[in-house]
Write a structure and sequence with these properties.
Elements lengths: L1 E5 L6 H12 L3 E5 L4 E4 L6 E4 L2 E2 L5 E4 L6 H13 L8 H8 L1 H10 L7 E2 L7 H7 L5 E5 L8 E4 L2 H13 L4 E5 L7 E8 L2 E9 L14 E4 L4 H14 L3 E9 L2 E8 L5 H7 L3 H12 L7 H5 L5 E7 L21 E8 L2 E4 L12 E7 H6 L29
Helix pairs in contact: 1-9, 2-3
Length: 402
């Protein structure tokens, strides 16, 4: 295949390892500076310019988008997607993971265990927010910090309030997060490729430092993950929409707590710790997927007027409970079930013999009006319409005599 690695750091360890792994497998590979692309929307089909000239054809790209160029970098990745060039990490997936608040919102929606987290902006809400995650000490995080930068441990509520107020005064948005004492100075980085963890390491902070990032002087050691930790890592990456990701987890008393999903994980630390060819695993995965590029299903399926994608919830009192999909009548109403979500289990392309249960969620494609008719109306207290007052617009009061 012909592969482009999108990176502004051709001499970085990760970029060099990925390029070497691709060359060793007989692929054509080039490292292209993300900022030198031009998005060409003037022709009949989506296109890209590189260094002012038309870009040659590529089978796949591997984005290594830095935090400082997220907006432009994801725009370039999105253009490649419109050109049907395969990418393991979509523009939407990179955007989701880059914003810590957005990532936590999405993960929590899918029952991924996270440290208790809150987000407020008004000064009056700070103390209740801190108390809601268990009180001090708390961890304060900038929404777009990387490599441990912008992560602060506040020992008391007053210190936390002072730090957050200062950050707010500089137009910074921050998360307030419970400090997981049992995992102090330790976390796990799992490198997910496709639907499996290809390598994992434990990072241990140096001295009194509570951040375990290698860039902060932390040490690393290989670790064998239990199925619980591996499943949490893989599901988190998939929920984000990433096929290549570094998933950071704390070792909580109740099990894994996902801290962050990184769309451009560094390879040096994990390859050094595990002695595994992680770069090769990434290249092998991309090579196997090139013939089947993933597309934005919602974008493609909603181009037909009157049709779209929607999620239907089987409510506890629904007539569908106990019926099979074949008996549900959905196909007769021109509705196709793409996936069935039952708790943390996902059943793709479910057969007609699958029996529906309460709280099942059906991802469907079909006639929007038919799907809307299946959603029960919310009960609302109907307010009685009152008669118009005699004076709809009160007369202005005369100014008081001076």
């Amino acid at each position: 295949m012909k592969l482009a690695i999108l990176s502004r750091a051709p001499q970085a360890y990760s970029t060099q390892r990925l390029r070497a792994a691709a060359q060793q497998r007989g692929h054509q590979v080039k490292v292209l500076n993300t900022l030198r692309f031009g998005i060409d929307l003037s022709g009949a089909e989506p296109d890209l310019q590189y260094r002012g000239r038309p870009l040659s054809d590529y089978d796949a790209i591997l984005p290594r988008i830095g935090n400082s160029i997220t907006y432009f970098g994801t725009a370039v990745v999105r253009q490649f997607e419109q050109m049907d060039v395969y990418t393991p990490n979509t523009a939407n997936g990179i955007t989701n993971a880059r914003d810590k608040l957005r990532a936590n919102q999405i993960l929590s929606r899918h029952n991924i265990a996270l440290p208790a987290t809150t987000f407020v902006r008004n000064r009056a809400d700070l103390r209740p927010a801190i108390e809601s995650v268990g009180g001090a000490p708390v961890v304060i995080k900038l929404l777009e910090g990387t490599q441990g930068i912008g992560v602060i441990l506040a020992p008391t509520i007053k210190v936390a309030e002072a730090i957050i107020e200062t950050l707010h005064s500089t137009k910074q948005n921050v998360l307030i997060q419970k400090f997981i004492a049992e995992s102090r100075g330790r976390d796990i980085r799992a490198l997910v490729v496709g639907d499996r963890v290809v390598a994992a390491m434990r990072r241990v902070a140096s001295g009194d430092e509570f951040r375990s990032n290698v860039h902060r002087g932390g040490s690393v050691e290989p670790v064998e993950l239990t199925p619980e930790y591996e499943q949490a890592a893989v599901r988190s990456a998939q929920i984000m929409g990433l096929k290549v990701a570094g998933v950071d987890m704390l070792e909580g008393n109740e099990g894994p707590l996902v801290m962050e999903v990184n769309s451009s994980p560094g390879l040096q630390g994990i390859e050094t710790a595990t002695k595994l060819d992680v770069a090769g695993a990434i290249i092998d995965y991309i090579g196997n997927q090139v013939a089947f590029p993933e597309i934005d299903v919602r974008q493609r399926l909603t181009v037909s007027t009157g049709y779209g994608v929607a999620e239907l919830l089987v409510h506890g009192d629904a007539d569908l409970i106990g019926k099979s999909l074949g008996e549900s009548g959905l196909w007769e109403r021109d509705i196709t079930v793409l996936t069935l979500h039952r708790g943390t289990t996902v059943i793709p392309n479910p057969r007609k013999g699958v029996v529906l249960e309460a709280e099942d969620r059906l991802l469907c494609f079909g006639k929007l009006e038919e799907m809307r008719s299946m959603i029960p109306e919310r009960r609302r207290r109907r307010q009685k319409v009152r008669r118009l007052p005699k004076e709809p617009i009160p007369a202005p009061q005369e100014a008081a005599a001076s």
